[in-house]
Write a structure and sequence with these properties.
The chain has two helices and seven strands, in the order ααβββββββ. It is an alpha+beta fold and about 130 residues long.
């Protein structure tokens, strides 16, 4: 009986190692599909605009904290919308939702703390062309 238990205890972990693993979609896949290039970001509150050369669409996640070294936690990740909470040590944190209308047009809502003060911003970002 003891040999049978020992064989079972050793077989279960081995079986788990050879069990097929379901393929997982890449995190934030919707952002990967956005077109690269020059994007205009328009503040929906006051109409002010700015342009960025988008190489990595995760730049849209931290418009108030454009730095590296921030940690991110994905709250929601669907084909049309992503929501991410991020924390930048010593600089603040935020929660951003990006909703894709097309691969050239997105709506961005972000809120959090930057420079010790709260912020809540809404933007429309549109691809304008090449950088």
């Amino acid at each position: 009986m003891m040999k049978l238990r020992l064989a079972f205890i050793m077989a279960v972990p081995a079986a788990l190692l050879v069990a097929p693993v379901a393929a997982q979609a890449p995190a934030l896949a919707m952002l990967i599909e956005l077109e690269r290039g020059s994007w205009q970001i328009r503040d929906r509150a006051d109409g002010a605009t700015r342009s960025i050369c988008l190489g990595d669409a995760t730049q849209f996640l931290q418009l108030r904290h454009p730095r590296t070294g921030c940690s991110r936690y994905v709250i929601s990740d669907t084909a049309a919308e992503v929501t991410v909470h991020y924390t930048c040590p010593g600089a603040g944190h935020g929660r951003t939702t990006i909703r894709r209308e097309t691969n050239r047009l997105v709506q961005i809502d972000t809120q959090g703390i930057a420079g010790g003060a709260p912020f809540s911003d809404a933007y429309e970002a549109r691809r304008m062309g090449s950088c």
